[in-house]
């Protein structure tokens, strides 16, 4: 008697059982997140689409499985927070100040670098005695060397677990033709050269701990929306971080890039930007002013105010969305390479940066005022 097994039937039954289990899981997810009749009808629609072709069903379930595995992997954390030291620059206010307090609350040994004594004192009053502060000017090599010695004495043989390069400035910012070389230097020295020099100085301590480097870039490091040194510096931070990540992975150091959208911090204060635009306009030669038109500066001011208004509508004022990304990069067992922070970054600016240049140019030109001569051409 031929007792050969029909493997085709057995494999078919196994696939059917797995399919039924997956379908039950998907239905459970829909019911949990949507609930009621909407979830049932939506599930039936998805179920029918998946059943329509074996290839689509396999692709669908592989996508679901991959997403679940990614979520589990992304949720894994390192341990022993109280034994890990993290240095954060730019802690006087904004992202750095909030991150320092959050990590301190989670038990990390935080070393908060502030530019001013006032900033350091204010932060110390809001944190536990475990948090240490020091003064650091990232544009001053001597200040950086002093900070390295202080941190080395603090961390000992454990080394430095995390370095968060957060210090930055935005102004002078405006049309490129309005700038002088010194205007570019003011921003680049803080946002790019400062990041590079601080990172190089602390690499030996980071290698000792096989730690993390978290560099704060911007969506303006993906899409240059304005002139001045800010966009240049953030593009530079992106490139520096990419090369550093590839080189340091051999030493167990992870490098992550934070790309925030627009948030209300001292860097994006519209009154400071408006005042600096007025300063730049005042020193321009008359022929340059004439080429832009007398109303251009007022258009720029209105544009700054319009951006401030749009920040209140389109972007969250909750800067913890940025510090969550920073914290995840420091605490996750498998930190991400890039973090888009804010809905505008994830769904507007970063996707726009992948589109053809003529598309991004068109949208950018809608947001920025046009010179007088350009208006005449259009007319």
Task: Characterise the protein shown here.
The protein is an alpha/beta fold and 379 residues long. It has a single domain (81-378), classed as NAD(P)-binding Rossmann-like Domain (Rossmann fold), CATH 3.40.50.720. The chain contains 15 helices and seven strands. Strands 3-2-1-4-5-6-7 form a seven-stranded parallel beta sheet, with helices on both faces. Helix 7 (181-209) links the parallel strand 4 (162-165) and strand 5 (212-216). Helix 4 packs across helix 12 and helix 6 packs parallel to helix 7 (181-209). The longest helix has 29 residues, at 181-209. The N and C termini lie far apart (92 Å). Mean pLDDT is 82; it is low at 1-5.
